[in-house]
Amino acid sequence: MRSGGVTLAAEREDAMTRAMSGCEPARKKSRFIRHDGASYMWLGYSVFYFVEPIMRHDGRFWLQCMGVYAIFLALYVAYVEVENDRVRLALLAGMFALGVAMTPVNDGAISFMFYTAAMLPFSRVPVPVVFGLILADSAVLIAMGGVLHHRYMSFSLSAFMMIVVGGGNIMLAQQRRAGMALNAAQEENAALAAVAERERIARDLHDVLGHTLSVIVLKAELAGRLMGIDDARAKAEIDDVERTARTALAEVREAIGGYRTRGLSAEVEQARRTLDAAGVRLLCETQPPTLRPNDETVLSLAVREAVTNIVRHAHATRCTMQFQTTGDGYNLLLVEDDGNNMSGREGNGLRGMRERVQALGGRFRVERDRGTRLVIELPAFQVGEAFQVGEG
Asked: Locate the Histidine kinase/HSP90-like ATPase domain: which residues (predicted)?
């Protein structure tokens, strides 16, 4: 999972860098990257390179300048098209060297050095290093003006403009990085929200279907045993199977659209009927409390999962359910049976129950000694007066 996250982060960084270069994302295992064509618009600034050849009216000089420009054009196209970052930095160095070599012959070749300063901020080089390289480029240009003893002020002004252009692009690149990082964070948050929603639905479907299907199986088995012995009760159990199946269908639809339980009191009463059908006596001498909707949903699902586990695994004869208030302000649900379920493995149902409780700031524990004891504590809900649920 971690390696997948690192790969995803690297792909996002690649996409970010290419976007800031005017290029679209590359295909995997491709040497070249696709661009949107906008990168070639900036070649318009190279028109200054042709000012001096136009002024000199020298055919040989024209050929020399065109040959050098062809080299620059090849470097530029390679920079736009090639994906490898080290190769791109080498291409920028080639543009700069070409400008240094040609500027003594044609002052317009300074534009090649400008391209280097303008493109460097969009590379994956630390900002201080980029700014240092731009300053070094400017210093080289000023030194050239001093060595050549002509147009020193013009070269110095060009060096200053190079710093301005490079610095401005550094700010622009940082803004784009921040914007793309924000977009990436929003995409990741949306993905995490989708994962959390899928997990919620998975937990709820497990609780809903696990309980109701267990009830259907239990009642169908009971009806089968009663056939020919007590046909009236067998028919009643089959009718109950039908009602339970219809209820399960409705609850699945509710779970998909945002599950809500029927209420804690109704869940306790359903638990009594389910346990009674399984031959388990339920004792509940405290009244379910009035809760906030989220808290009631969590406790209702906890009661349902606990009863399902008792019916499936515990082989119990008695179940005790209590609602209490602890001394430190938590409200407690206790479900205890006298079965022999000694498994220490926490299945999907208990895991989902634990996650729900902890998401509300509650405490959750399962104790297994003589039977199973489930303890759930949630903060800040009110407990009502005691009442007796039928003894079955």
From this structure: 294-382
